[in-house]
Amino acid sequence: MAQRKTHAKSRLGCLTCKRRHVKCNEERPKCDKCLKLGLHCKWATRPDESKSPATSASSPATSQHNKISSPNLGLADLRLLHHWLRRTVPASFVDGDAVQPWLDELVELGFEQPYLLHAMLAVAAVHKATSSNNPGDLCLQASAHIDVALRSLQTYIKEPDAESYVPIFTTASLMVLYKLGVAQVEPPVDPIADTYDWIRLLRGVATVVHQFRDQLQHAASGTLLQAAPMSETTGEIPGVTHLRSLVTELHVSDVAESCLFAVDDLHDTMLSLEQDSTRPLHLSRRLIFTWPIRQRPAFVELLSSKDPTALIILAHYAAVFHACRKQWPMQNWATWILDAVKTAIDPALHSWLSWPAQVLLQEPADEWLWPKANDAALPS
Predict the structure, then answer these.
(1) Which parts of the chain fold into alpha helices (H)?
(2) 174 and 267 both lie in a single domain
(3) What contacts 24+ positions apart, CB below 8 Å, involve 105-113?
(4) For the chain, does the N or the C end have fewer beta carbons within 10 angstroms?
(5) Together in a domain, 30 and 167
(6) CB-CB contact of 301 with 255 (8 Å)
(7) Domain check: are 82 and 219 in the same one?
């Protein structure tokens, strides 16, 4: 039997040849194979990663904020930028004060710090893909943009300065949004691992940029840095506080302490969301995303190892995500996390998931109204 003829892979070839699994000669605007067969030769946008200009020994020192040249945008990128301004921002950032920076100064900043602009275009591509009949090409564009953003961010996050605080913080926030949003096009294979990834990203950036918070509170983009403090609360959510007995039953010493802290902090967060109706919606959502940042390293590592107690606490955190289910990047995540936790833990522990499961079934008039003891069946 004759051996199958092999050829080198074409990594920069057109999408048409990739779908046909044939080698492309990468000739633009129309490759040889598409030209011969009369096919539509389609290309994915491959954003060029801007390189830092060379600096000589005699050049004055410059901050990293000024080291990256502006990116070259193609027509497809401009369409994504238009979608970002007209569609993605209004759908992603819900309050007036929170929306305006994403339309104005942060876009301008993106042309100075291209990794930020690439992150915006990646999120725009994913958002556009959620309503597209042909999301594949948009996902390719999104992947290309987020790869450039991530590689550049990893370089510049090593030595941040006061000028780079806002673009680094904003880019990392967009990467979390991207991680949540891309799942709306292609559901995650392992929701727990994906959740752990964006939690690590949030925590890492928060650690790096914390030292610049005081200096930048009054920056033009100050609304992005505005803290979301928890209000003083009264009352109890038994479906959450009951987790303390699970922690003391399954863990000892510092591991138990980190889990108890996670339970108490989640309980206070949920009570604060329920009882402070005057808080702007964008600060409520920020409060949700600061819960993982506040957790102790031991608890985060328990999530990484898929410890049953940590996963059950995570399932209760998913109930908060359910309250934000109408916002496009957070749709379905509560269900994905809860189902993944149920699969990962021993069936003997499934009764501990009854409270978050009930939250996911309800459609309250008030999205922050949690079931109380007489509404939820708690494990004995």
Answers:
(1) 15-20, 32-37, 75-83, 89-92, 96-103, 105-112, 114-129, 135-156, 165-182, 191-209, 222-225, 238-241, 243-250, 253-275, 281-294, 297-304, 308-323, 333-344, 354-361
(2) no
(3) 105/220, 105/221, 106/166, 106/170, 106/221, 106/224, 107/81, 109/166, 109/167, 109/170, 109/221, 110/167, 111/70, 111/71, 112/65, 112/66, 112/68, 112/70, 112/167, 113/65, 113/68, 113/164, 113/167, 113/171
(4) N
(5) no
(6) no
(7) yes
Per-residue pLDDT tens over the stretch 181-210: 999 999 999 999 999 998 988 887 777 667
Residue 208 and residue 305 in one domain: no
What is the DSSP annotation of 260-286? HHHHHHHHHHHHHHHH-TTS-HHHHHH
Report in angstroms the alpha-carbon separations of 161 from 27, 157, 212, 226, 227: 43, 9, 8, 19, 20
Instruction: Indicate the average pLDDT of the chain.
Output: 79
pLDDT tens by residue, 97-148 = 568 888 888 898 899 889 999 999 999 999 999 999 889 899 999 999 999 9
- pLDDT at 173 exceeding the cut of 70: yes
Q: Which residues have a Cβ under 8 Å from the Cβ of 119 and sit 6 or more positions away?
A: 145, 146, 149, 153, 170, 171, 174, 175, 178
Give the pLDDT band of residue 348 (cuts 50, 70, 90).
very high
* Same domain, residue pair 31 and 142: no
Per-residue pLDDT, 373: 46
Please tell me the predicted confidence (pLDDT) of residue 65.
42
Q: Which residues, other chains included, contact 319 with Cβ-Cβ below 8 Å and sequence gap of 6+?
A: 270, 334, 355, 356, 359, 360, 370
Residue 186 lies in a domain: yes
Q: Is residue 53 part of a domain?
A: no
CB 124 within 8 A of CB 174: no
Residue 317, helix vs strand vs coil: helix
> Would you say residue 4 has pLDDT above 50?
no
**pTM of the full predicted structure?**
0.75
Does 83 share its domain with 36?
no
Within a domain: residue 314?
A: yes
For residue 101, is it within any domain? yes
Q: How confident is the model at residue 275 (pLDDT cuts 50, 70, 90)?
A: confident
